[in-house]
Amino acid sequence: MKITKKHNDGTIIFGALAYGDIFCSDDRFYIRCPDFYDSEENSSFDAVNLTTGLFAYFEGEEKIKKVENAELIVEF
């Protein structure tokens, strides 16, 4: 028997993202950035929340939903 899944809900592990990829976790949107450590915060970060601009950290095996097509609209 052959089983083929045709619906892709976009769920992947965080570690599979490339820098600059947009993703969703808990109904919040983020952009993947290079890992860095903030000694003042004593924390590591690897993403930026697109609503708040705050840094966040995700484990490599954490499941997230990759956004395939994102659009930024800037109005002046």
Task: List the topology elements.
Elements: E1 11-13, E2 22-25, E3 28-38, E4 43-49, E5 55-56, E6 63-66
Antiparallel strand pairs: 1-6, 2-3, 2-6, 3-4, 4-5
Main attributes?
about 80 residues; mainly beta; SH3 type barrels; 6-stranded antiparallel sheet; 6 strands; about 0% helix; about 40% strand; flat
Overview of this structure, please?
The protein is mostly beta strands. The chain has one domain: SH3 type barrels (Roll). Helices cover 0% and strands 41% of the residues. The protein contains no helices and six strands. Strands 1-6-2-3-4-5 form a six-stranded antiparallel sheet, with no helix packed on it. Strand 2 (22-25) and strand 3 (28-38) form a beta hairpin. The chain is flat and about 55 Å long. The N and C termini lie far apart (57 Å). The mean pLDDT is 90.
Percentage of residues assigned to helices: under 10%
Report low-confidence residues grouped into runs of 5 or more: none
Q: What is the number of E strands?
A: 6
Which architecture name does CATH use?
Answer: Roll
Structural class: mainly beta
Element string (H = helix, E = strand): EEEEEE
Fold-level CATH name: SH3 type barrels
From the N-terminal CA to the C-terminal CA, the straight-line distance is 57 Å
Count up the domains: 1
Computed over alpha carbons, the radius of gyration is 15 Å
Mean pLDDT: 90
Largest sheet: 6 strands, antiparallel
Strand portion? 35-45%
What is the 3D shape?
Answer: flat
State the helix count.
Answer: 0
